[in-house]
User: Fold Thioredoxin domain-containing protein from Nesterenkonia flava.
Amino acid sequence: MDSDLIVREDSHRLDDVPSSPVTFVEFLDFECEACGAVYPAVEELREEYEGEMTFVIRYFPLDGHPNSRQAAHAVEAAARQGELEGMYRLMFETQEEWSHNEEPQDEVFRGFAEELGLDVEQWEADYYSDDVAQRVQSDFEDAVALGLQGTPSFFVNDEFIAPETLTDLTDPIDEALSSDQ
Assistant:
């Protein structure tokens, strides 16, 4: 695997532990039901390994989800005001309310920006900007170049993981952590 495509310098880190031997990466789609279903387990991992590993998210909005690209734009626009994690959480915690709706969910996402106390004018300018669109597209292109077929797609360091259980995620993390000692 091309590690430069898995994590870039500008990739978003929900948890950043520069001294850690482990980087956990999730390519995700905020409208994907599987991503929503695995979200609590991923949060459990973040809590369990807090301070021990870097946790990276990458955008991979799939074409079959009508609002996934705009959801990624909403998160990216929030990230530019320091609220990456707040918007990330809102997307998954409210996924059932807005997802799989053919109508654009721009106003719902704008409401999230208001709820997070963002400068909504700035958030909106970013949300609709070419710069945000290109940032999301860049992550998407990396996912395609890596040959990813769907979401969620996980990597522990440069190793692709196709988990069926939580242990399928924790075992490679534990192995990478123990091999560094």
Notes: Residues 3-174 form a domain with the Glutaredoxin fold (CATH 3.40.30.10). The chain has nine helices and five strands. The chain has one domain: 3-174. The beta strands are 12-15, 23-28, 54-59, 153-156, 159-161.
